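User: As part of a screening pipeline, I want to sanity-check one entry by hand. Below is the sequence and the SMILES for 2,6-diaminopimelic acid. Please return the complex as structure tokens so I can compare it with the automated output.
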Amino acid sequence: MTRQTPQSAGLAFRKMHGLGNDFVVIDARSGGEPVTAALARAVGDRRWGVGFDQLVALLPPSSPDVAADIGFWNADGSEAGACGNGTRCAARLLLDETGAQALSVRTLNGVLRCERAGALVRVNMGPPDLEWDRIPLAYPVDTRALPIEGSPAAVGMGNPHCVFVVEDAAAVDLAALGPGLEHHPLFPERTNVEFVHVIDPGTIRMRVWERGGMITQACGSGACAAAVATARAGLTGRHVRVILDGGPLEIDWREDGVWMTGPTAHVFDGVFSPEFLGEDE
Ligand SMILES: N[C@H](CCC[C@H](N)C(=O)O)C(=O)O
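Assistant: Here is the complex for your manual check:
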């Protein structure tokens, strides 16, 4: 997949968020220079750039059945195969632009269906990759070696997640535990880490350490992974409200995939200067 940014004086972007999981969206559908890890790191610096949890690039549609292709980068420059809240924000932009009620986008995790749900946006994140549950077999690891008690569930949602069911997610010291779990040898591609506790069979509380080295207010793919993990463990049904630090997401694990519904916000539009982009030398 080619990732392009527009060639012009400066580079336009839109700041958006879903439950405080924040994004810089760059519309690269008309081509230009590729989005690079270096650009993601520069834009993602909250002091020297703008800051984001993920950079979301809208790319030219690679087939007629999709409104756009979408790429995601973390602020450390790594690329993510999935980003639920970023997909919902990109979909909101595309739905507003076209006036459509529903459309599809292509991500590294395939074609995802997105639709309006009143004022909210819903996306089918696709089926969970339960092969991930075999990871402890493929990579034999004594989970007692993990810096937290209990055996985690590994769930792929197009990106890796490691879900711990704990007594009180709010009491977990994410900053202390996150880095060691993200980089644990059990996960050769590193992992996002979720801590959840069950409130009732339809509600869980979740906090997240995202791959890329951040605590975020919300993580859509993580909420899907957590709902799948608690449903598989028989702790919840397949329709779960996931309460994140930034607010609730509704997760519905259907036959055709894990649907996620929640709010999106358009914060402001801006233009990166040629100076910032290193284009005026
Ligand atoms: N915030 C995103 C997840 C980003 C995942 C990323 N940190 C990774 O490296 O997989 C979401 O709403 O799903």
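Points to compare against the pipeline: Residues 130-255 form a domain with the Diaminopimelate Epimerase; Chain A, domain 1 fold (CATH 3.10.310.10). The two ends are 29 Å apart (CA to CA).
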